[in-house]
Amino acid sequence: MSLEKILKNMKKMDAYIHYMITLCGGFFGVYAIVSRMGNFGQAQTVNLIEMVGNILGKDLTGAIIRLLAVLIFISGIVLATILEKKGKLDQRYLAIFFDFMAAIIVGFSPLSMDPVIALYPFFFATAFQWCVFKGAKGYASATVFCTNNLKQTTISIMECLFMTKNNPERREKLEKAKFYGSTFLSFYIGVVVGYFSWYFYGAHSIWFIAIPLLVNFILVFVEKNKYEANFNIQKNMVHESTLEK
Q1: What is the value of pTM for the model shown?
Q2: Which of 85, 88, 121, 245 is most buried, by CB atoms within 10 Å?
Q3: How far apart are the C-alpha atoms of 139 and 149, rounded to whole Å?
């Protein structure tokens, strides 16, 4: 098998992993919103706005609760960055584990609990996931929210419309639109699955995210082992070719 074919196959597997973990991001997102009073447990924009509102409204307790959410989110980013520089373990396994543990903990949290505090595990796990699963096929893409995926899909489609069919860049733009569009779709498939899971099973519905997480774990395992096997084959081929010369 040629190196070019190996890389092409790895890009496909990488994309499947990306789409599946993005589905999990959508599942997390809708669960947090419908079960925890509209709070989004995997970003900080709204949380920071609410924190400023708490400060201006002199709600010190609410401000502290939201400040802790910010710090927990930051800690996920910090840990991912440190492990990227110093760690030897494939962080994707760790991200899947953190997602799983966050789902277990939040699923046990009573609905009467303060909604922001209940989502603390989400803030950490999704921040870590965001840093670890950075995209696929050479494209940077978030898996825990989708605004930029929508933006890139729209831009790529519009650029295609202004190109002639013979333009060599048109195919790349179509591929880019397909990738970001598929990522956007994956996120909202997760939203739909998460919503109906919540509708029928309530607070414990988050535990169903274990299924796509397990699928993603298997995909990462297969991709990693397949890459190592193909790399060793290619390395041996190059070595044998050198000896023949």
Answers
A1: 0.90
A2: 121
A3: 10
